[in-house]
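Consider the tokenized backbone below.
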């Protein structure tokens, strides 16, 4: 079995699933795809939003000692938001996996709140992956500065990394 990790920024479209399968058509070993979809950490987003609204005078010079403590309502809202984010990411992952399976490929998937490249490092070891494909929208500045997922993956993984730009549904 030839295990390929596929990190996608968004749900794998029908066109991208077809393009991905086409890359491995004619390989001698059967290919199994492992789809990884990152999702946001709702708690961190809420905290960043609150800090932004409060302004530097509350969180800056005064220091965290004077920062207001989050009450139960904020924690409850964060938990609800995280459940919604996780549900949306899980649904996108499941649709992505089904699109690959509809093309007669073995596929499984996970969502992660961790930094995507950190997740890839662990996944490569766990599934004994031989290759990584990263599908993203164009991120010109990040790519220019070599801080995009592909550049990070190439620095941290000992396997080939292919970066493709998403087609979207066409």
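A designed sequence for it:
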């Amino acid at each position: 079995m030839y295990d390929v990790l596929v990190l996608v920024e968004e749900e794998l479209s029908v066109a991208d699933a077809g393009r991905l399968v086409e890359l491995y058509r004619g390989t001698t070993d059967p290919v199994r795809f492992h789809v990884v979809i990152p999702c946001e950490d709702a708690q961190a987003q809420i905290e960043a939003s609150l800090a932004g609204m409060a302004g530097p005078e509350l969180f800056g010079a005064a220091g965290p000692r004077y920062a207001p403590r989050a009450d139960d309502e904020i924690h409850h809202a964060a938990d609800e938001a995280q459940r919604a984010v996780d549900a949306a990411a899980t649904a996108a992952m499941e649709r992505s996996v089904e699109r690959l399976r509809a093309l007669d490929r073995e596929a499984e998937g996970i969502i992660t709140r961790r930094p995507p490249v950190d997740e890839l490092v662990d996944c490569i070891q766990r599934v004994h992956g031989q290759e990584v494909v990263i599908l993203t929208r164009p991120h010109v500045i990040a790519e220019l500065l070599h801080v995009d997922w592909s550049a990070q993956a190439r620095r941290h993984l000992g396997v080939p990394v292919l970066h493709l730009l998403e087609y979207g549904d066409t």
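The chain is about 50% helix and 20% strand.
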